[in-house]
């Protein structure tokens, strides 16, 4: 069973993916961490984030066992990730790891931007999680405040809009919902309601597969 969960920044897809994986006993991969780690490594080399050659080399050298670095969650890391994520050679270098992760028994939940469209187009279930930019900014702002990080709502909203634009407009594997994805708009849903809806979608799909 492969479950693809895509969506824009701060849509809640990460929390949802983690809970779904735990609920169904599946592996979970937050694919955004791969791009965040490539950006970190490029910056450590002192290279520019849009240096395609250095970024692709960093992606090829990435050790996916080392994705628990807290720096990857810092403000600015997502923005930096979206710059290296535009480079086709970076995406190509990360593709096989994601696909082989997805094939690990008994199955996996992968969350990102292009899982249902490019990484696992044959996923058993695809969910595209979204919410208005204002709702996502509010959630992210409250999270940051809770962690004592300096932020303003307007600044967070501007970051979210910029990242949406960059992720949706790139040429290779842009962020978009797969045609066969279930659209889960969490603008007016809390995490419990979003989780219940997603579980319902997955059980329905699994039932259909069982009957096929
Ligand atoms: O999901 P997260 O915010 O951690 O992703 C950081 C950035 O990595 C995204 O803004 C996007 O540019 C890139 N990304 C991607 N494809 C994925 C996952 C993340 O391009 N599957």
Using brief descriptors, characterize the structure shown.
single chain, 212 residues, alpha/beta, Rossmann fold, five-stranded parallel beta sheet, 9 helices, 54% helix, globular, binds cytidine-5'-monophosphate
Q: Can you walk me through this structure?
A:
The protein has helices spanning 13-24, 32-44, 52-61, 77-84, 88-102, 115-119, 133-146, 153-169, 191-211, and strands at residues 2-6, 27-30, 108-112, 125-130, 182-185. By secondary structure, it is an alpha/beta fold. The chain has one domain: Rossmann fold, CATH 3.40.50. A 5-stranded parallel sheet has the order 2-3-1-4-5, sandwiched between helices. Helix 1 packs across helix 9 (191-211), helix 2 (32-44) packs across helix 3 (52-61) and helix 7 (133-146) crosses helix 8 (153-169). It is globular, with a radius of gyration of 17 Å. The model has no long low-confidence stretch (mean pLDDT 95). The structure holds cytidine-5'-monophosphate. Residues 9, 31-32, 35-36, 78, 81-82, 85, 112-115, 163, 167 line the site of cytidine-5'-monophosphate.
């Amino acid at each position: 069973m492969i479950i693809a969960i895509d969506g824009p920044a701060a849509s809640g897809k990460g929390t949802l993916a983690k809970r779904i994986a735990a609920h169904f006993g599946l592996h979970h991969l937050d694919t955004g961490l791969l791009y965040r780690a490539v950006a970190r490594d490029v910056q450590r080399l002192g290279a520019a984030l849009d240096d395609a050659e250095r970024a692709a080399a960093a992606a090829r050298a990435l050790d996916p066992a080392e994705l628990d670095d807290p720096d990857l969650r810092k403000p600015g890391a997502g923005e930096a990730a979206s710059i290296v994520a535009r480079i086709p050679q970076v995406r190509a270098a990360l593709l096989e790891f994601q696909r082989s992760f997805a094939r690990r028994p008994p199955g996996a939940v992968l969350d990102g931007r292009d899982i249902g469209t490019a990484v696992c187009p044959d996923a058993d279930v695809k969910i595209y999680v979204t919410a208005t930019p204002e709702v996502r900014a509010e959630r992210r702002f409250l999270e940051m405040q809770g962690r004592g990080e300096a932020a303003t709502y307007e600044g967070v909203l501007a970051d979210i809009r910029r990242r949406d634009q960059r992720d949706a407009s790139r040429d290779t594997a842009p962020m978009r919902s797969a045609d066969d994805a279930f659209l889960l708009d969490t603008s007016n849903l809390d995490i419990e309601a979003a989780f219940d809806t997603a579980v319902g979608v997955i059980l329905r799909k699994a039932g259909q597969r069982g009957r096929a």
